[in-house]
Every structure is written in structure tokens, then in C-alpha cells.
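Example record

One chain of 107 residues, shown exactly as stored in the release files.
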Amino acid sequence: TTKHVSHFRQHNDARLTQGKTSSEHAKGKLPSDVNPSFAYGKSTRPSTPLEVLLTNSFQNEYVGGMDKRQEKIRQDKKPIGVVHTKASLGHMKKNEENDGSAVANFK
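Predicted C-alpha cells for this chain:
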């Protein structure tokens, strides 16, 4: 009954603990506690050397790469043969037949 349930709850702590207790949170260690040289955040990229910028090394490297690519493209290009359709073959045949007779008609 409800009286028994309320009496039981008054005398018994039936709550469940979820996750870590407060004492466990206090014991938690941060990475910087374990390793003093640990740094939080994202590392920055190294700076570009000025000598490389002043001598146009990036540009020379890019242009050299482009020359190689263009030369490869030139070598890979093959001429495409003429592909005749039925209509173009018919026109060729008609022109071959008319070549001799057309000249004879106009003389």
C-alpha cells in the first residue's frame, strides 16, 4: 500500500548514483597534471622560410610541374580518325559517281 511505500522510502535511501561521484571528480587528473609540458589547443603550422619566398621557389616549382603536365598531354594526344556515318558515306559515293559525268555534261 502507499503507507508501506512511504514508510519504506523514509527509512531506506533507494536512490541510484549515476556517473562519477563528486569524490571521483576530485581525483580526476588533467593531462597537464601528469605532463607539465602538455599544451591544450591546436598547434600552429611552421612558418614559411623567407629564403624560399624571396627566390620564387614556389613559383619555379609550380611552373616546372605545369611544363611536365603539358608535355605529357601533348604526347598523349593522338589524332582522331574520321568516323563516317551512313549519310557521309552516301554523299561520298554520290560525288564519286558524279565526278566523271558532271564534267562531260558541261563541255
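Notes: Helices lie at 2-11, 22-27, 31-34, 50-54, 57-76, 86-106.
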